[in-house]
Specification:
The structure is a single chain. The chain is α/β, with parallel strands linked by helices. It contains ten helices and ten strands. A hairpin with a 4-residue loop joins strand 1 and strand 2. Helix 1 runs parallel beside helix 3 and helix 3 packs parallel to helix 4.
Length: 270
């Protein structure tokens, strides 16, 4: 069942897949300060939910996310229904929207299970920041991507810059950050920002199919692989202990030999 965080972030959980929907259609799903603040708490709750094995981030309607609501950068206006309070000096976090965005990005990146951004239309600014924080990115033809702080005179956060460069390489990261120009989905695929590019009308079907695959696999393998791929290499002994204490390997081998679907039981510690 859908649950609204502030009427602009929604989530569902079904068949092991949690889906977060960015919904702010009046501004192409631009993230307000309240949405940035809500995302880490929502992600943390889903991380602790044993029913969740995969997380999908997407946008409502034909757009993924057009970035941050510019009014939250100026401090001239608050979020809908907030009477300007979100921009007031002294409100925790509201005086620095970049800090709110980084906190949301880092919470998404730290999610202990596979994450996938399903992208249509504009994926710009803070939208690209959130998409880059996911493990995987699938997009529909016609999507556009851009990292736009150079249009506003904003210093892009170091952690976000490093994450972008790790995906597309330093040359493409500089191209995007220096120019603030939008690139098409084919170029984003070629640059390495996207994992898959789907024909129009095929994104939902492919995401559903692929997340079913992810949800059926060993969470032990996925959790260890995510840490190692993200550059954390100081927990080899921890993962060796986890594997030794788990029945996933024996179950996987038995299922292979018996030609049946494995029933993996290892789950991340809360």
């Amino acid at each position: 069942m859908d649950a609204a965080i502030d009427a602009t972030l929604l989530h569902t959980v079904a068949d092991g897949v949690a889906t977060i929907v960015i919904s702010h259609p009046a501004k192409r799903n631009a993230m307000t300060a309240a949405m940035w603040r809500a995302l880490p708490e929502l992600v943390a709750g889903l991380a602790d939910d044993p029913a969740v094995r995969v997380l999908v981030l997407t946008g409502a309607g034909p757009t993924f996310c057009a970035g941050a609501d510019i009014s939250s950068l100026t401090g001239d206006a608050g979020d809908p229904g907030d009477s300007g309070a979100a921009g007031a000096a002294g409100a925790a976090g509201a005086a620095d929207p970049r800090a709110l965005a980084v906190a949301a990005e880092e919470a998404l990146a730290a999610f202990p299970k596979p994450t996938l951004a399903a992208i249509r239309g504009f994926c710009v600014g803070g939208g690209s920041q959130l998409a880059a924080a996911c493990d995987l990115r699938f997009a529909e033809e016609g999507a556009s991507f851009g990292v736009t702080p150079a249009k506003l005179g904003i210093v892009y956060p170091a952690s976000s810059t490093r994450r972008l460069a790790s995906l597309v390489g330093p040359a493409w990261a500089k191209y995007l950050l220096f120019s603030a120009e939008l690139i098409g989905a084919e170029t984003a695929l070629r640059a390495g920002f996207l994992n898959e590019l789907l024909p129009a009308g095929q994104l939902d079907k492919r995401v559903a199919e692929f997340t079913r695959i992810l949800a059926s696999r060993s969470q032990l393998t996925q959790a260890a692989a995510k840490e190692f791929a993200d550059g954390r290499t100081d927990r080899d002994a921890y993962w060796e202990d986890q594997a030794a204490g788990s029945e996933d390997t024996a179950e996987g081998v038995a299922a292979f030999l018996e030609r049946r679907t494995p029933r993996f039981t290892w789950t991340p510690a809360p």
